[in-house]
Write a structure and sequence with these properties.
- Helices cover 46% and strands 11% of the residues.
- The chain has two domains: 83 residues, no CATH class; 190 residues, no CATH class.
- α6 links the parallel β6 and β7.
- The C terminus is likely disordered.
- With 298 residues, it is an alpha/beta fold.
- The radius of gyration is 21 Å and the shape is globular.
- The protein is built from nine helices and eight strands.
């Protein structure tokens, strides 16, 4: 899931209105992500004791901002309602896709395991598939599939920025990476709780730090959010957070969001791009990067 170019680069004021209107009117209606009419938007402002003339003028015509917001809300609703539910997998589908990829790719690394017990103890299917797909595409290039250290970017062989938290994967290394990714899979979760919500905000924090790094130091790294579990993200109350993720994508805090089965076609394309970027900068630092890194306990 890539961002729509016409909504990228919007000013903070645009996103302030997106968040204010959405939270006031509500993210969903009758089980789907909703969009908002001009009347919905102005009523939301009135209910909050705010002016609505920045959205709709006195003669009833929408302002430029109002029209852009309406188009964005329509786009977000269509994107999630028409695509997300079809891309997200349940546990059975993920297991089948995992087994198929494992048979096809013959990975050398053992699969990471989930934290479930007894009958639910199994490979962390999404993480394992991500690892297999990347391993199958990188050739002799290293990759750290479970960085056990904070991500650091350097200048003149000294740290310029170190991110606040560990990520789930880095290519080729957590030192001056070309690409970083976070994986959230919740196949056995029955309710959408605060722990899952925290995962969204943690990714937002990473994105804000990376955006500041690019602005202040002109150092860039690609940032991906990879999620799955239809019952959690779609059926169990996760749709509002999918809206937040789409917003985050267009605010520039994530370069791309990969939903469930999308990884099979998209990851090989992305890895090719990562390799190209690494070769352009002369190979980059390989410190701490190895395909022999132990598999994580996901």
């Amino acid at each position: 899931m890539k961002g729509e170019e016409r909504f990228k680069g919007q000013a903070p004021r645009f996103w302030a209105n997106v968040r204010t209107i959405t939270q006031q009117v509500g993210y969903t209606t009758k089980g789907i992500v909703r969009t908002f009419s001009f009347e919905d938007m102005t009523k939301a402002m009135a209910d909050l004791g705010l002016a609505g003339t920045h959205l709709v003028e006195a003669d009833g015509l929408p302002t430029v901002l109002g029209q852009e917001l309406r188009e964005y809300f329509d786009y977000r609703a269509e994107l999630l309602n028409e695509q997300a539910a079809n891309l997200l997998m349940d546990e059975q589908e993920a297991r089948e896709q995992y087994e198929e990829l494992r048979a096809t790719l013959s990975p050398t690394r053992p699969p990471p395991m989930n934290k479930q017990k007894a009958a639910k103890k199994a490979p962390a299917y999404l993480t394992a598939m991500v690892n297999m797909l990347i391993e199958s595409c990188i050739g002799d290039y290293p990759c750290n599939y479970d960085p056990l250290e904070l991500t650091t970017f350097t200048k003149d062989q000294a740290p310029a920025r170190t991110l606040a938290r560990r990520v789930d994967g880095a290519f080729p290394s957590p030192v001056n990476p070309v690409a970083l990714w976070e994986i959230k899979e919740y196949y056995y979760t029955t309710t959408f709780g605060s722990r899952i919500a925290d995962g969204v905000y943690e990714t937002l924090l990473d994105g804000m730090e990376l955006q500041e790094l690019a602005t202040a130091e002109e150092i860039e790294a690609l940032h991906y959010f990879i999620i799955d579990a239809r019952d959690t993200w779609w059926s169990a109350g996760g749709r509002p957070y999918l809206c937040r993720i789409v917003d985050m994508l267009h605010m520039g805090f994530v370069d791309e969001v990969l939903l469930g089965r999308e990884i099979k076609t998209r990851l090989p394309e992305l890895v090719s791009e990562w390799i190209g970027r690494l070769e352009e900068r002369g190979g980059g630092t390989m410190k701490g990067a190895t395909s022999e890194t132990p598999a994580p306990e996901a």
